[in-house]
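Async update (no meeting this week)

Hi team, since we skipped the sync, here's where things stand on the single-chain job. The sequence we agreed to prioritize is pasted below, unchanged from the tracker. I ran it this morning and attached the output directly underneath so nobody has to dig for it. Comments welcome in thread, and please keep replies under the output.
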Amino acid sequence: MNRRLGLNVLVSFAVLACFAPSLWAHGSEYYFPHVADGRVGAAGSNFYSTSWLLNNTSASSNVVVIKFFRSNGTDWVIDLRSVDRTELGGRVASSTFTMAPRETVELYTGGVDPLAVGWVKVESDLPLLASEVFQVFKGTPPITDSEAGVLASPTSTQFSLYATISQNEPVTGTHIDTGFAFANPSASLASIEARLYSRSGSLASTKIITVDANSQKAIFASQVFTDVSFTTGLYHGLIKFSSNVNVAMVALRQTYGASDTISTVAATSDADLLTGIAYDREPNDTIATAHIFSTVPGEIIGTMNTASDGSDVDIFGIPLTAGQVLYVTTVADLMNSPLDDHIRIRNSAGTILTDNDDSSTGLRDPFVRFVVPTSGTYYIDHGSVGGTSTRGAHYRLHIRVK
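Output:
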């Protein structure tokens, strides 16, 4: 990334948030596609440090491994420190430790080496709340100049990104660019097709970005789409990325001129966009107050609980055409929620047309297949069975129409 600010701009990727829909990653692997550590210039008065904030939300002990990689995929021996767990400090390329139930641990880099960038992978036996804080220190003695947090990135083969590029922004006269960083944790070369669409939706350019196995790459949109002119006005558009292997991604918008600022841009996995995620909103316990859901296939994320901690019912309406087949299933018991869900399909008069409690022996999650008799709006009515409506009665309701 050759740019006026050179490596200093490159390291700024660490301030990025990566995917808007998820509050935190669920699983055993957490990726931070860009990390910066070290001192800038010969004098070394300015330096970067990156922290990882880890919370074991489980009531059980949890084994965690944090691994550091340089951009070229080689092990990165870094000066790791911790005030919470001083025994974890030292020059390491990886660290393995056990977190007690509900324990919180902060790890951070010392910022004493020459400035370098890379990526980090955190492995966990149990679901972990994992986030990162990027800090910039300036002056002697050093003071915090800025800091920002970033969530772990998911891996996917497809992402979509809002892009702003301008070499002469018409209002302020500053320059704006959109950058992105990829971490490729796979053992194969990542060949990422990047398609730039104009604000009107027409395809402006297609380029290929490659990232070596186990490596990382960061670059700006203006450096990728060299066949598009960004010299006049403000360019707003969409970039769609498609990779042959799973990659993790973060993105930013940089405004530079008299001063430089970095802001987060959401790079969203297309898996989330294709699902059509919505969230339960109350009140919706009657047909009159039902949440009308017209985007299918879709997923509704909610909790079966009233404001008074009582038994709840959530009702969603969906317009259907005669002959269509409606498929509805709830994921609750399958993800260890205490909710015992029961689905009923009703017509506009409230009549129950079909229902299901348990779709399989031993599993309390319901499934319904319903052939639509006449065109109109139908209602998915689902609620708890056996007093299982609580604050922890989370569910994911999946809807498909064919």
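Quick observations from my side:
The chain has three domains: 23-151, 156-270, 276-401.
The longest strand covers residues 235-256.
Reply here if anything looks off.
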